[in-house]
Specification:
The chain is built from twelve helices and 19 strands. By secondary structure, it is α/β, with parallel strands linked by helices.
Length: 428
Amino acid sequence: MSKTLIRGAQVLGGDVQDVLVDGETIAATGTGLPAGDATVIEAEGRILLPGLVDLHTHLREPGREDSETVLTGTRAAATGGFTSVFAMANTFPVADTAGVVEQVYRLGREHGYCDVQPIGAVTVGLEGRKLAELGAMHDSAAGVTVFSDDGKCVDDAVIMRRALEYVKAFGGVVAQHAQEPRLTEGAQMNEGTVSAELGLGGWPAVAEESIIARDVLLAEHVGSRLHICHLSTAGSVDIVRWAKSRGIDVTAEVTPHHLLLTDELVRSYNPVYKVNPPLRTERDVLALRQALADGTIDIVATDHAPHPHEDKDCEWAAAAMGMVGLETALSVVQQTMVETGLLDWAGVADRMSFAPARIGRATGHGRPVSAGEPANLTLVDPAYRGTVDPAGFASRSRNTPYEGRELPGRVTHTFLRGRATLMDGKLA
């Protein structure tokens, strides 16, 4: 079995230590560890984190391999420092049966540069009318624990209640795409001053907030776990904070792009900024950052949403919604949270590894960097500064809102159970 000695890294941004990886596990940590026959990585000035976990990724396979595949998506994940991703169910066919989730799971096992955990649909065909095979998907080889109709809201309160009741039996969680559909008909961007000036249909904050308010009450009534996908407004933060103060078992995520970008960018009419939920105001951005810092928002999740060139290089109204995000996520978090003093690197490890692994029950991930633990690790150079060039992305798609923007930090190495998937910034 191969051995690797990571020498002189700041573990979680704290003490400088050597970390010896032997096979699939961390064999030892400390100072002055002998290299012996191990490959040595000189890591002075770099941050060593547990492998990142993304609870919200769109891999598009099966059905939209022109956008992404399990192979290309997990290569992008490894480039961004992720060792585990949760693949959303809005594929073709929809991942609403044991057969489809097992297909995605097998593709991850056979071709993945990181672990792939399928997310099962809540309703058949994402149509919101009938519960999907929740128990069968959980009992399958994929062992599904997270269920979501992401891309669509489970807007029927009775269906949502039944889903929460069903998953409670085996400790699962329903991840809600909070969007009241009647309030967003024809919506193109955040409802506000900018939408009024541009003449684009507005997407009101209350469309998100009303669903979250309903669902936290349902979760309290049922006594089940609820997770809020891509929370994007200051009002949503207030509702989740209130729910947690009552002891309701709710968790929430924020995307990197909602931590950095605002609806002012839509003035360019560049469809790369078209996303669901839409980019919000500066006030919302600042509220989201503070909520992530104080723990009201539990995790960062990318909502990596790849699209082929023709689906974004068109007029705004016709463009698909979504942005790729796996390869830039950690850099955006460094800029918005670490360099602003809102989080330290231990906090980043919690929001991007420990907490998402805990919410999704990702066995072997989100573990301490200590002897005996699985060697799922990410090494970061925080001093790096570089301009984002999507031509060099590992993802099959290029729809990034950060093209030409300078971002800090770079993942130099990623290890999946001791095997290097990224070495010196290059895929292994």
